[in-house]
Fold LacI family transcriptional regulator.
Amino acid sequence: MTAVGQGKGGRAGARRATLATVADLAGYHVSTVSRVLNGTTVPGARSASSAAAERIRQVAREVGYVPNAQAAALRRQRTGMVGVIMARMTDTVAATIYEGVERAAAEHGYQTLVMNSWDDDETRARCVDLLMAHGVDALIHGDALADGSSLQVLERSGLPFVLVNRGAGAYPSVTADDRGGGRQAAEHLLALGHREVGVLAGLPYAGNAIERTRGFCETFAEAGHPVRPDRVVPTTFDSAGGRTGADRLLRAGDGPTALFAVSDAAAIGALGSLRDQGLHPGRDVSVVGFNDMPIAGDLTVPLTTVRSPMREIGERSVALLLAVMEGEPGEVVRFPTELVVRETTGPAPGLTRGR
Amino acid sequence: MTAVGQGKGGRAGARRATLATVADLAGYHVSTVSRVLNGTTVPGARSASSAAAERIRQVAREVGYVPNAQAAALRRQRTGMVGVIMARMTDTVAATIYEGVERAAAEHGYQTLVMNSWDDDETRARCVDLLMAHGVDALIHGDALADGSSLQVLERSGLPFVLVNRGAGAYPSVTADDRGGGRQAAEHLLALGHREVGVLAGLPYAGNAIERTRGFCETFAEAGHPVRPDRVVPTTFDSAGGRTGADRLLRAGDGPTALFAVSDAAAIGALGSLRDQGLHPGRDVSVVGFNDMPIAGDLTVPLTTVRSPMREIGERSVALLLAVMEGEPGEVVRFPTELVVRETTGPAPGLTRGR
DNA sequence: ACGTTATAGCCAAAGGATTGCACAACCCGC
DNA sequence: GCGGGTTGTGCAATCCTTTGGCTATAACGT
């Protein structure tokens, strides 16, 4: 295993150029090179002569010098990376929030190091450890447990962090106003005359799902039409979960006339279930989703849903994190949601449907 | 700025425990601690006594020692991280592939460091630099330009890399058999009697889009019904792109009777366009997508599409990367696709449609 | 012409983990 | 009881950058 034999092209095996390489070639000391390349315009006015600076930059470019972030991180005690934990990237909601996070972080000179926790406790814990090992300066936690149980270790570690998408207790977090969104969905269905409704309630330990369900159910209860407990079924957030849940709710003889899904993907799964049973969304059974993901409006029967500003939520979480890193107190931020009425909802059919 | 003032709980300001901390407390030398904690079961069998090992592990646990990956990476010349560049995570295809990558990488003890390039040249280049700076051991490139122009720098750098999702020339890559998939879509539509078809062709510089379009068009040409060039419109891969493209194709007086979209999202966008024009998918206009993302089968009119094993592609790319890192030659892998016929395709209507 | 002050650049010490080498103690056999 | 072979540990160099301290030179004022 002598030669490195990777890229066929260049000087394979020749290790990356370091400060020393540049210093030698340019005829300066590494410290000078470092200062030039870092543009240390800071206090001591430790600037190099412009001649030196130019020469050094020239050489650096020639040898393709890329600073070793590891070494730099070791010396200054910061990596410029923030860790991001998400349940899974194929959840469009998570992905969109993440895009917001990445963009905002980049704007402030931070890299993001993402990991998928798969909503699994052990993996979640391992993520935190790994991210800490890689020296992230802070953490954005996208899949906290509603009871905050996963966060105590984190808090003890002293690593600054904020929650996003799923809140938990008083921990600093940025989410949609999930409860309010649930209420909006409920009010809409109530206004359409629906009385017997079901909820595809999402994961029972996810703060956002809980709040959405709560807002929805309490609104129906206040209107004098409490949601039957057996009509609130836990699901995953994806379409498969929505489908299974809807199957269960609709196959029962006295199915509900409307469904509220705590995610658009689950709502689409419910649409699949409806279709299989020959039911038409918006006419036979109404369906309301959550988030308003981009395809919602393009469906052949466009989805009524509660819009949440996902990307903004991601961006805001970075701002909040930065504040927390500065030692500021850290707040609980909730973005208002907006009901988007399309065609999967319609007036309630006669109290008892056939079939 | 004396106290650190982050986590309120624990010993804030107390820096992370290091090897030295553990060594002192356990009464051993840091080198011994290092060996124990790394389980250096390697060749020299220079193991520590089990007494020492136990004590050391005990102490490490007590003080919550987390190794500093930066420092370790500096010393051994590897970080255990592979960089991943994707156009954007909200593209479900990219996200799914990434999930495969992450999982497979983790299985082999690697972390992934993802970045979104937004399909922008400058950003793409910056991603590579940043990933190199962070010392990734290798790179998985998910948004190569078809002409390979973005890859020469990379090749020169000597960093091992493979392409995924979008191939380019003879560079090692893992993709679906995009051309074959395009053919399958075409054969299906031909069999249904469609002669006048349009293509939502994706980004003109993306290898996968190009190949899918090519496979499709060549099959129609071979059948004696070449696709009119003005009916092949470039689009983005998302639903907005598909919608705009379909609007353009269908608004022309003599619209095609079928559309092939190089992504499911674009296909769904096309469905939106159809709906707006009062056209029924599968009856008035047939639509074929690509990838078979999970919701495809749950749509109210389920989507006919060409299935590609996205997650597997991601996983395989890691395997290939590992091989390349070992100095093996690096191949071009293409996974076969499978046509999934659902309900957005049907027999071609009379040669000229009304309206 | 000499003292004073910038300026440009070098020196060397971290920072935390890994690892080849050296060393001491111990075991065994004869 | 001593040589040869293990075995468990310690020593110290090394990876690359950053940065406070320091020196030498140049510039400037009177």
